[in-house]
Amino acid sequence: MNLKQAAGSGAEVDERLAALITNANAVRAITAAVEGTIGPKGLDTMLVDRFGEVIITNDGVTILDKMDVNHPAAKMLINTAKAQQAEVGDGTTTATIMAGGLVAEGVNQVLRGVPVARVIEGVKYGIGQALEQVKISCRHVSDINDPILRNIAMIAGREHQDIADLVVEAARLIGVEKLAESNFKLAEIITAQEGAANEVFLGVIVDKERMNKEMPEVVQNTRVLLIDDALEPEEIGDEALSTEAGFKRYIELQNEFKENAKKIVALGVNVVLVDRGVHSDAEEILSDAGILVVQRVAAKDLRRAAEHTGARMIKRTGLKKEAVDLEKYLGFADKVYEDEKLEHVRILGGKGKPMATILVGAATEEVVGERMRIAKDAASSVQAAVKGGYVPGGGSIEIALARKVEKSRENLKGMAAYGVDCVVNALKRPLSQIVENAGFNPLEKVEEVVAAQVTEQADYLGIDCDTGVVTNMLALGVVDPVPVKLHAIKAAGEVAVAILRIDTIIKKKEDAGNGAQGSAGNAGIPDF
To answer: 199 near 359, Cβ under 8 Å?
Structure first.
């Protein structure tokens, strides 16, 4: 039964609610697409495009991102999940389920006669209370060797022990100070390749091969030059080239470029990484000198190489500097070599900041992407826990939050209290869905957890999905990072309020200038 049918048996729904009900049904369709994936017993989703390409995953944001969706409210929910992924790297399914629950509960209250404004007021208040309680419930990671980090990696990594071990080892190599940096993301040091062995090492991978096989495959005690530009002569316009002065300038630039390439050789550089292409003259000069050159290096790989080797990136025009000045731009590493099997170059033992790389192996091309997504989720959660602490997982903390929010209901007067009820019920959704996916009755198990938490005054009691018994989630090692939980609750509240505030849907006039224009109401609304 959809929300429109729920308004009354055969009763005519007030036209003023048409937009709200349309949006709520769209949100429900999106929530239904991911709710079956949550929890240890969650199942996978198969995504198929019109060419027959298949992705099999239970990663919420991947499912939402790849879905063919047109409805604007549905897109709002998907964008919220993407924002959750970009900010903290995990918790997208939880955020989506709670947002869907808030919208559904809000519409139900409106259909009962509660004004939308009062519902929104109560939702905002309830979300604020929940966020405060998460902070109060926070436990902190004692140090980088705290065994709780592996538990976090296991849960976010969907029980893949090998990936959890890789992520935790990398976190220990990098250290707390680096993990705490706002602009560093542990997930960005991960790469997955077919046929590779699982590996964590101090160094960086440049996902390119050397320019030609005449260049050395292995270089020891390296002096590294990073060119954030093309290694090509400066260009001159066609009009200028057609004049005598212009042609003369062209010859000067060609000769100057060759001299700059020879200057690189004279500096003792033996590894050059270039952002864009390399001119054939430079390739010949550097190759003859036994220098390993990699061109068209991705910006992220170039940045990591610079940080690891201590090099400063330079533009091609900067090569005009004197040799003594160019020395300041060089980086240093113990070893640079090409792995011919995996078709990439590795830089090891850089003299700049220590950098770790997580290489996740995959047996076939089809599972490379999924193993990469799993590893990135695990890495994001581990880093979030180090930075912001953790709370009991498995939906247990949400039940504890629901109890606290429900108590705060008495602080609101009037109909806004019904909006708080929306938050209470939405906070119960994650546990309800987790136990349903595990094959248990969600109503029964949620009430068992509520009763147990009230009796023992413990926020860590949840359901063991193997036995269906109320269990200490902390003892099981089932925990969630606080930053992930905070952002999921905040994002769910924001998108739910935004959708509940929409009173009318109007189709925009076409941009093509043909004068076509939609009418007010729910006419012309895209499908979802």
So the answer is: yes
Quick one: tokens of 226? 């990073």
- Give burial (CB, 10 Å; 0-12/13-18/19+) of 24: buried
What single letter denotes the amino acid at residue 512? Answer: A
Look at residue 237 and give its three-state secondary structure: coil
d(CA 253, CA 245): 12
* pLDDT for res 48: 86
pLDDT at 175: 87
Q: How far apart are CA 126 and CA 416, in angstroms?
A: 10
Nearest of 424, 489, 437 to residue 463 by alpha carbon: 437
Given 3-state DSSP classes, what are the helix, strand and coil percentages for the chain, each rounded to the nearest 5? 55, 15, 30
| Dist. CA 343–CA 277, nearest whole Å | 18
The pLDDT value recorded for residue 17 is: 80
Closest Cα partner for 157 from 168, 145, 173?
168
Match 């080239």 to its residue by tokens. Answer: 241
Q: Which of 452, 426, 453, 448 is nearest to 435 (CA)?
A: 448
DSSP 40: T
Mean pLDDT, consecutive 10-residue stretches, the chain (528 aa), reads: 46 66 89 89 85 80 84 87 79 90 93 93 95 94 90 90 92 88 87 86 91 93 93 75 73 86 92 93 92 93 92 91 91 93 91 87 81 90 93 94 92 91 95 94 95 94 94 92 93 93 78 48 43
CA–CA dist 231, 369 (Å, integer): 33
- Distant-in-sequence, close-in-space partners of 194: CB < 8 Å, separation ≥ 6: 362, 363, 364, 365, 368
Q: Which two tokens stand for residue 79?
A: 């964008």
Residue 74: predicted pLDDT: 87
- DSSP secondary structure of 42-97: PPPEEEE-TT--EEEE--HHHHHHHS----HHHHHHHHHHHHHHHHHSS-HHHHHH
| CA quadruple 74, 77, 81, 82: dihedral, nearest 10 | 70
CB 462 within 8 A of CB 470: yes
Q: Judge whether 80 and 99 are in contact, CB under 8 Å.
A: yes
Extract the tokens encoding 193. Answer: 């390749």
Distance, in Å, from the CA atom of 75 to the CA atom of 470, rounded to the nearest integer, reads 37
Q: What is d(CA 163, CA 165) in angstroms, rounded to the nearest whole number?
A: 5
Residue pair 471/462 in contact by the 8 Å Cβ criterion: yes
Q: How far apart are CA 484 and CA 175, in angstroms?
A: 21
- β-partners of residue 190 are 358
